[in-house]
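Database export, one record per block. Field names are fixed; values are copied verbatim from the stored entry.
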Amino acid sequence: MTEKTNKAFLVPLPLWKLAWIAVAAAYAWPVVSIAYDRAVGVTRQARERLIVQHRLWELHPEYYGTAETWTRAASRVLSDRQLMSRVHSKYGNLATQIELDYRRDLFIARAEVFAVALLAWGLPVGALYGIGLTVVRVRRRPAPQASEPVADDTRYRP
């Protein structure tokens, strides 16, 4: 690193930037929490669709409950790997394509959740930064100086 770059790290941040960073970090917590909950919900819904679409409860004839109960319980308890092993046991070689489709759909659904969360966090934080930057620039702008009257102007002589 050059000497100029090292000095840039030692310059203290203005107070408004520190406040902006604190607000951005504080606002990130609820957004991340909501996004995580939605991502877990999307994953559970994808597992439920996989179970219903491929009727995975039929692989367990010893289960005497309803298919809906098995689906709800299995979507919460079983991991993706465990569900895919059941799909493999039911479909054999065709299961690889089913797994690829499932993973692709799950990736797209999770990406939508996190893109919305990023926008929900980034737009207000960016707007606050823009407002702070505008206020700082307006305050730094020097006041226009009045032109001084010239003393030997002929209009002012008797």
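Remark 1: Residues 13-136 form one domain.
Remark 2: The mean pLDDT is 86.
End of record.
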